[in-house]
Amino acid sequence: MKPIQERNPVPIAVIGLVLVLVLGLLAYRADDLPVIGGGTTYTAHFTEAAGLNTSSEVRVAGVKVGKVTGVRLDRGRVKVSFRVKDVWIGNASTVAISIQTLLGDKYLAVAPLGSAAQNPRQTIPTNRTRAPYDVTQAFGDLGRTFGQLDTAKVAQSLQVISATFRDTPPDVRKALDGMTALSRTISSRDDRLARLLAGSDRLTGTLASQNTEYEALLKDGNLLLEELRLRREAIHRLLVASRELSRHLVGLVRDNEAQLAPTLTALDRVAKVLQDNQRNLDKALAIAGPYYRLVGNTLGNGRWTDAYLCGLVPKEYLKPGTPPANGCMPPKVGGEG
């Protein structure tokens, strides 16, 4: 086989690009792969979508088990497709669109009910599904409707009605007078109500734009609480283990008190003897050091022993100047002697 350096780089580059594209496609569609992805896909009919989208979660008892894969219109109803994995869906299971956050995010809540498994090819009917009441949308519709009202004409209409029913009984007249006063109040505070609704609209938009930050904050808070819980459990286990260790040590001392008391008494006597003879021990160690040094020097030249004899021959048999000048002192290493 030829080395890569000697091959044509064009087909190698094409093959490399194809492999990169295939790997990217596999990573993008990882949820659909049979080993790391997969799952079972079900469909359900709803009367309205209520803000559900294809990236919404599917939960069972609050635990994420899948995600929504499709939301489309089907003959006047909303058909939602969702895929779940490792969870049982019964033939009487109910599916509800629930509110996930205060900013309007939704998720699909599944209650696994029934005595038999749900057939994935059969769509869950609307009598087993439920859509939430969207408060945000209701307030938005109210604001738009109120902004389109002509408060002046409403007040004029109420005044005409009040004049028409002027000769009615006192109870009806009081009710109409109250309606007239209400219309005048609404008309006089039209600008303030408009500013209030505009401010509410801006607040809703700001909260919606910060949805990702709020989610990250809540997730980080959950991680912090989980870590604190784990640390609390670790400290609790440490305290329990320390208490058990102290209990066992107390039991050990109690069980061996009869044997430990004589031993400690004997150790005390030995320590007293050593303390009384500390001066003699120091002197012995001071003398033993040079002695063992000389023994080491004597035996450190191989398989024989060095010796130094002084005074063996009488001085009168020696030549003048040959006896050692310092008496019988051994010669120093490297010096004369």
Automatic annotation (TrEMBL):
Chain ranges of the Mce/MlaD domain:
39-112
Show the InterPro entries listed in the entry.
Mce, Mce/MlaD, MlaD_Phospholipid_Transporter
Q: Does the keyword ATP-binding apply?
A: no
Q: Name one GO cellular component term.
A: extracellular region
Answer yes or no on keyword Chaperone. no
Transmembrane annotation, as ranges: 12-30
**Which UniProt keywords are present, listed alphabetically?**
Membrane, Transmembrane, Transmembrane helix
The name this protein goes by in its record: Phospholipid/cholesterol/gamma-HCH transport system substrate-binding protein
